[in-house]
Amino acid sequence: MALEELQKYLEETKVLLEKATGKRVSDALTNKMQQKSQKKAALLDNKMPAAVVAPITTGYTVKTSNYEWDQSDKFMKIYITLTAVHQVPTENVQVHFTERSFDLLVKNLSGKSYSMIVDNLLKSISVGGSSKKVKTDMVLNLCRKKWKMLNHIKCKEKEKPSYDTETDPRKRLMNIKENLGRR
C-alpha cells in the first residue's frame, strides 16, 4: 500500500470508529487502525531520516459510565474497568477530586482518551485523603469518606429502639403506642 492509500484508509477507519456503537466493532476498528498506523510509520521511516519521529496523536474522547463500587470504614472504592490501562504511563491517568465529585481522565489508551465524571455524591469526601491506583485493566479510585453510613436508610436502621422482652406484652404495646405518639 502506498502512503496516500494508508492515510485515506486511516481517515475512513476513524470516521467509522466515531459512528460505531458496539464495543466489539469499535475494538476491531481500533486494532485495524493501530496496525495501519504502524505500517504508515514504517513507510515514513523508510522515506524520512531516522532522527525525525512523527508525533503520536490521540483520537477522540470516550465518556465511560460503567463502574462498580464498594466501601470500607474509611474509603468508598470505585472500580473503573478499562482494558490495558496498566500499560499506559502513570502520568496519563489523572483524577481530580472535589468535595462531592471526581473526574477521571485516561489519555492515549489505544489511541483514545477516556473520561468519567461522577458528581453529586450523597456525602462529602476528603479531597486530600482521596487517591487513585492503576491495576491490571482497572483504575481504582479511593474516595476518603467523611461519613459513617452510605445512605439515610442505613443510618435509620442504627437508630431502631431495642424492645424489652422481659416485660409484660401489654405493657410493651403501650410503650410502642406512646413512642408513636411522640413522633
Explain this structure:
The protein is of the alpha+beta class and 183 residues long. Among the domains are: 1-42, DNA Excision Repair, Uvrb, Chain A (Irregular); 61-145, Sandwich (Immunoglobulin-like), CATH 2.60.40.790. The protein is built from 4 helices and 8 strands. The strands form 2 sheets. The chain has a 4-stranded mixed β-sheet, with no helix packed on it. It has a 4-stranded antiparallel β-sheet with strand order 2-3-8-7, with no helix packed on it. Strand 2 and strand 3 (75-81) form a beta hairpin. Helix 1 packs antiparallel against helix 2 (23-47). It is elongated. The protein starts with a helix and ends with a helix. The model is unreliable at 50-55 (pLDDT under 50). InterPro entries: CacyBP_N, Calcyclin-binding_UBL-bridge, CS_CacyBP, CS_dom, HSP20-like_chaperone, Siah-Interact_N. Residues 159-171 have a biased composition (Basic and acidic residues). Keywords: Coiled coil.
How would the blueprint of this fold be written?
Blueprint: H1 3-19, H2 23-47, E1 61-63, E2 68-71, E3 75-81, E4 93-97, E5 102-109, E6 112-118, E7 125-135, E8 138-145, H3 152-158, H4 169-182
Parallel strand pairs: 1-6
Antiparallel strand pairs: 2-3, 3-8, 4-5, 5-6, 7-8
Helix pairs in contact: 1-2
What labels describe this entry?
183 residues, 4 helices, Siah-Interact_N, DNA Excision Repair, Uvrb, Chain A, Immunoglobulin-like, coiled coil, 29% strand, 4-stranded antiparallel beta sheet, tubulin binding, HSP20-like_chaperone, 4-stranded mixed beta sheet
Kindly provide the name of the CATH class of the domain at 61-145.
Answer: Mainly Beta
Instruction: Spell out the helices and strands N to C.
Output: HHEEEEEEEEHH
Mean pLDDT: 80
The number of helical runs is 4
What percentage of residues falls in helices of 4 or more residues? 25-40%
CATH architecture of the domain at 61-145: Sandwich
Main beta sheet: strand number and arrangement? 4 strands, mixed
Total strands: the figure is 8
Structural class: alpha+beta
CATH fold label of the domain at 61-145: Immunoglobulin-like
Strand content: 25-35%
Distance between the termini: 80 Å
Low-confidence stretches: 50-55
Strand order of the largest sheet: 1-6-5-4
Radius of gyration, Cα only, in angstroms?
27 Å
Region (Disordered): 159-183
Pfam families: CS, Siah-Interact_N
Biased composition (Basic and acidic residues): 159-171
Keywords: Coiled coil
